[in-house]
């Protein structure tokens, strides 16, 4: 039933959070990529919905982000799951700690809490944002408050896609899916490179 539910969502998806200036894919291409995403995420869907439900019940946002989302659209199964949230590290532990089988805090100073659920490794990181001063191209990284600010700091558009949980709303603010279909990697918004937003600089994948 869960797998079938995901198929329904992927065929008739919830509204995609995508700015008007981001190019839309042809329907046939989008449908093909969505079918691949079904295969890539089907096995993890119960975990995604359960974890997303825990954060929502606690009043927090949660999104699957980066490599696992990209790999799903490539039809690949990602070994690890990366999430981002508006919850602080302490709040992440309070919400997800009792749910997990194991927990490690090696990246806690950077906002990341590691968890293991059965054989699945999970990392949940507080939203981050970059700011630049006038004298350096090196960003100062601080905890952020929005998914948009977190995504714009990522290196490539294909790594700046997200899936809000538990709603399964696909977020593509920088044209990552179009770049994935074209096999190019555009810069999402700069991150450490300071490059322009919306894939102004593109590289072959």
Structural account:
The protein is α+β, with helices and mostly antiparallel strands. It has one domain (2-195): Beta Polymerase, domain 2. It contains seven helices and eleven strands. The strands form three sheets. A seven-stranded mixed beta sheet has the order 3-4-5-2-1-8-9. Strand 8 and strand 9 (169-171) form a beta hairpin. The longest helix is centred in the N-terminal third of the chain and has 15 residues, at 27-41. The radius of gyration is 17 Å and the shape is globular.
Short description:
With 205 residues, the chain is of the alpha+beta class. 32% of the residues lie in helices and 23% in strands.
Report the β-strand fraction as a percent range: 15-25%
Structural class: alpha+beta
Overall number of structural domains: 1
Shape: globular
E-strand count: 11
Low-confidence stretches: 1-15, 191-205
Might you state the CATH topology name?
Beta Polymerase, domain 2
CATH homologous superfamily classification: Beta Polymerase, domain 2
Q: What is the level-2 CATH architecture name?
A: 2-Layer Sandwich
- Number of helix segments? 7
- For the report, how would you describe the main beta sheet? 7 strands, mixed
Radius of gyration, rounded?
A: 17 Å
User: Share of helix among residues?
Assistant: 25-40%
Order of helices and strands: HHHEHEHEEEEEHEEHEE
> Strand order of the main beta sheet, please?
3-4-5-2-1-8-9
Rounded average pLDDT? 79
Instruction: Give the C-level CATH assignment.
Output: Alpha Beta
């Amino acid at each position: 039933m869960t797998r079938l539910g995901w198929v329904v969502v992927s065929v008739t998806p919830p509204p995609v959070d995508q700015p008007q200036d981001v190019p839309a894919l042809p329907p046939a291409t989008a449908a093909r990529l969505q079918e691949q995403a079904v295969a890539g995420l089907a096995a993890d869907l119960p975990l995604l919905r359960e974890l997303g439900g825990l954060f929502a019940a606690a009043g927090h946002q949660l999104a699957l982000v980066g490599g696992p989302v990209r790999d799903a659209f490539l039809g690949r199964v990602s070994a690890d799951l990366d999430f981002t949230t508006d919850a602080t590290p302490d709040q992440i532990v309070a919400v997800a700690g009792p749910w997990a089988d194991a927990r490690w805090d090696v990246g806690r100073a950077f906002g990341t809490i590691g968890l293991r659920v059965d054989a699945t490794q999970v990392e949940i990181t507080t939203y981050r944002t970059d700011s630049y001063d006038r004298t350096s191209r090196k960003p100062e990284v601080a905890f952020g408050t929005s998914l948009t600010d977190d995504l714009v700091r990522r290196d490539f558009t294909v790594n700046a896609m997200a899936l809000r949980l538990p709603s399964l709303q696909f977020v593509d603010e920088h044209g990552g899916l179009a770049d994935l279909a074209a096999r190019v990697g555009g810069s999402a918004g700069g991150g450490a490179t300071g490059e322009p937003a919306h894939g102004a600089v593109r590289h072959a994948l």
